[in-house]
Amino acid sequence: MFAVPGESALKQSKSARAGLQLSVGRFYRWMTDARLGKFIHEYAAVYLCAGIENLLEEIALQCNGSTAAALDQSIASSGDVWGLLQPFAHLNAGRVASGALALPRWANSLDQVIASSGDFRGHLATCVGSIRELKEKALRTQQEFQLAAALSGSALAALFYFMRCSQLEHTELLAASGCHSGQAQAAPGGGTSSAGHHVQELCYERAYVVLPPLAEWLRVAAAHAEHRNAMMIDKDDVMQAARLLLPGVDCPIRPVAHDEELPTKKTHFNTAPTVSSTGTGTGSSSCSSPVVSGIGIGIGEDTSELGRRATIGVAFKLLLTGRAELLAQAAQLLPPTTRYDTQNSAGLTALMIASIRNDEVALHALLDAGCDPNVEVPPAGSAGYPAIQPDTQHWTALSFAASRANYVALRILLERGGKVEGGARSSEEKCTLTPLQLAAGTGNLEIVALLLAHGGNAFLSTQQKDSLCFAGSAQKGCFCAISVAAAHGHRSCLRKLLTHPVSPGTRDVLSLEEMLAEGDVGGVRGASGPGGAGGPNSASASGNIEDILPLLNKTQIKRLQEAMYHSAENNHLDITIELRKLGVPWTLHCWMHALSAAHDLRLDAVIDQLLQDFLQVCPDDYSAQFVSECLPLLFNIFRNKNEGTTLLLADIFATCFGWETLPPVKEQPPMQPVQGSRIDPKFVNNPELSDVTFRVEGKIFYGHKIVLVTASPRFQSMLSSKLSEGSSTPTVQINDIRYHIFQLVMQFLYCGGCSSLDVAHGDVLELMAAASFFQLEGLLRYTEARCSEMVDVDNVVAMYIHAKVYNANRLLEFCQCFLLQNMVALLTYDDSVKRLLFAKKIPNHDVLAGLLQTLQNRLKARKPNSGGGLVNSYRSPPVTPVKK
Prior knowledge:
mainly alpha; 41 helices; Serine Threonine Protein Phosphatase 5, Tetratricopeptide repeat; SKP1/BTB/POZ_sf
């Protein structure tokens, strides 16, 4: 469910709300930058992102292996995805890498097509010799693939233009002549018929490798027809399909109120007609193919409805001339109840079409004749209006003019009584768009100013608040115009919307400052602390905008937070920072996105500015988003920034970690009897009963195999190799360990614990190395505990390195906690910590990655309310040490 109710929607990404892995915000930003449309709705980005993600999943599912070669082979043999992934300007659909044709799998099951027809070669035809042949193959393909829309006569002619092959055409003419007489007949004038005369025709024929199969032609054309809820595929649908499928072919976009083709009685809706050899569509031929049943049975049978549509179409042509005498004739063709406000099958009035065309003459004529500028497009699914687009429901002529940035039409409609909010009402919930929202999306500052001057409400949102409904089931309105401008990256429009006076309903016009003075005062001032981006040292966003917006009420704060959310999601950093300077409170999500964008753009000053706002966004509940997304981002920035930025980040890490006393590493509990003392401690270095000796620093040390072999795998390996040499009392050479340290190791083994050990501070690290070498876990735990008591700012780096080298993981974690808690002090103390963090290379170990993992584990384990949260812990930092 994408429509997350309440304020929680602003606390998670659009991708998380939609259940997607790819970034919806990045798709939205690309769509606006690539100008896919003047107004990009949020759902358009969601569906495009979901479509691409599903396509990638489909490709992964088709791949039988996990290697790159297997993936390439899977794509190369798939007619569904190979063409999609080619770097062509056109869609090379219906082919595999070898150039062979393939049927689309998702149009219908290929097995069902083969089982029902027995032959699917006609669906893969790339060229034909006559309209008769094309019609038969098209009808069969439509039936097999269950395409709802049928081809009109003009669409069939247009499709034949692109699929015509002169060689096949002449071959068919030859076959037709032979079928009639079997002989070449003399033509009038002494010439010969085409059966015996080869002509080099001057026509452009495309290469076979770029010709799409008939199934793809019909699938793409039918998609265009179904999008506009049409009952037939017309010529323009075929032209749009050619624009997508053929290289070098282009055509204009389909105009609004395009003449709709109506089916005739003798079309291929019910049954296929018999066609003469000339391909004209009338008569009969002994060589024609069997009759093929059409799939459009029942379409176009309501002659009264077809007549009504045709009559309205003729009347609209008369109305749009703008001539008074023709308007009177048009009135006779229109229903007396609606007259000039009659709507066509798409729910459009003649005034709406005139506003789309920006036809000043027609607008004046229609308004003078009494057209209502506030007629709305009916809701989707209304009876009698089958071609309504859900995107335009409840739109008025004013909405269409604003969407096309038609200033003249907009001004005329506003002056003649058009409602500035279109079909939207503040007291009603309608799934629609206001003219101001549309203008903010297009970025036309002149249109925005005109609508604001007539009372447009920049804070009006048309989003529905039904939290129990799936958001993808229908259009759900749109956020306010301020958020639209922020989402599209129109900074100038955003400033205009923020600085213009607001008209609250029908009351007197108040300035925004006067209206906001009645609201909540503390929200914004509390959000702009001295260290924040909205502090007194911040630069002015634009002119006197901060003077106009010193106070915000709760509703407008939510609207501006929503605008900040969309600007941050869509990577418009400049707008996000500007809204912050106005005093809009941060959310963790917006702050994190802004910080990531500033890091990508290498804007160090902005990064420092954002880091100073950390206390205003740090969560007391240590949310999963903060731990899993925000902390890795902070550590990534920490790796390669200047000293000032690293100190800010170090302060943040210490703040997150807290100032509670670090628990020391505990020693291992006393050994179990099985692992306890094997022999009396008096036998340590005692030649009595000794069956093995060690040479340490040139001195002999006596030992007993029964104690040593069971102590650790290391001793067992050492003694086993000596026993194989056949010596009765083997001698083992010990290097790199002092005699005194080796004696402590033996005392630990013979005593079964560390209680009797007396280790000096200077010997602890060396004893740790010996414990690690001999794989004595209990002794290693003892040295870790002793070292944790000795850690301070002078030796933490040495302790950290020893802990990593000798696999003292508990001491390593303790050192990481010490570094996190005292990072600011350590970075300003000397350069050893800096070298450890940024310069020193430890094999198979990343120091910063270890610190990140430790901090994440700390926050996950901490209870939400323990310690008073981050803010309270921040207020009691430790004393910064001073180097002697």
